[in-house]
Here is the input.
Amino acid sequence: MANFAKPSAPRFSVEVYQNEFLPEGGRDVHAIVTVTSTGGATATRAAVPAQGGAAVVIMVDCSGSMEYPPDKMRGAREATAAAIDTLRDGTAFAVIAGTHVAKEVYPGQGRLATAGPATRAQAKEALRGLSAGGGTAIGTWLRLADGLLRQSPAAIRHGILLTDGRNEHEDPAVLRATLDACAGRFTCDARGVGTDWEVKEVTGIASALLGTADIVADPAHLAEDFTRMMGNAMGKEVADVALRLWTPVGAEIQYVKQVAPAVQDLTGRRVEAGPRAGDYPTGSWGDESREYHVCVRVPGASVGQEMLAARATLMLPGAPGEPPSALAQGLVRAVWTTDLAASTAINPQVAHYTGQAELAQAIQQGLEARKLGDVDGATAKLGRAVQLASASGNADTAKLLAKVVDVVDAAAGTVRLKAKVADADEMTLETRSTQTVRVKKT
Here is the structure.
């Protein structure tokens, strides 16, 4: 493990957990790469702005359905006001009203305001004018947010998006193209309020833009959620960090997945970074820790040989015209042995997060089978999910599963589908299916 961070910046470290031993002929090396950022402003709760500053755009759904019931629109206004109050002084910000078009609510004229007592008050006054009417075209909201954020020199660029419905007034291909264009330019947290929105749309937006997704079934809880989201955004201090993986000749990365605090497949996000090296985006960081599952396929070797299977380096982009800098580094190794006990042992971290990824997949497949009326398939998949949640100590997910199935034997994965399930319970389980628990390190 190496740490290259400057004393004045948050310190990054990389730790690698793996079983480096392979049997004769073995080729796949699995490792959990733990990345930790410590010692920044959020660690000391100091109101120190991120290096290069921060810019945030809040996108509020104002489509006609937000008026039914009226507490959705009222909750959205209150939540946006709460988020504005959470902005750190000096943060650039704007508010957008989203329908089948996107309109600037504050400050307007294609500008960003600078957070302070006066602009916070003006922004909250502007929120009084928000009313519901029109359709839903989320891509237009994101494109306007992108245009506003791109004019800012801020290092941390972030969006918060709230919707209560499906993206019905825009071709799905347009939203996908918009997300592809915005990826890497800003991060975005997405929230669905009520139960009439599409989980895959909201989670897809958050995944593409390296943010979080969640359900707020009761609009009364929106202000609390927005305050927490904006607080997390204000805690980010380093932007656009990439996990660079270098492999020797003959070795190939099979996949890269963030596995904590949530499962997110980064394999397809690779950007080539020189000979045998690729960068995987991780977004913005405050004081936090995340874990990544890396699988490397190495060339076959004879017993007794060892090799460097991959080098994992955290990279920070340089200023215009300057090269990126390394923040921390860890090594993934491969050693061939005839010791059966050594080569067949599964590293506890690898085993845990492999199970957490399977848990997320089992929930998603089980809920899809349930929607299609496949009772046997849904029972089998959700039963497996209950078993995995129980074995890994994922109590939060276990509680959510218990609202969808009757658990007969958690350890064995024996369950019965509930005859009636509230929409909010099913959507909460699906939305939070990728959230994981940390491995218990001894």
Remarks:
- The chain is about 30% helix and 30% strand.
- The radius of gyration is 23 Å.
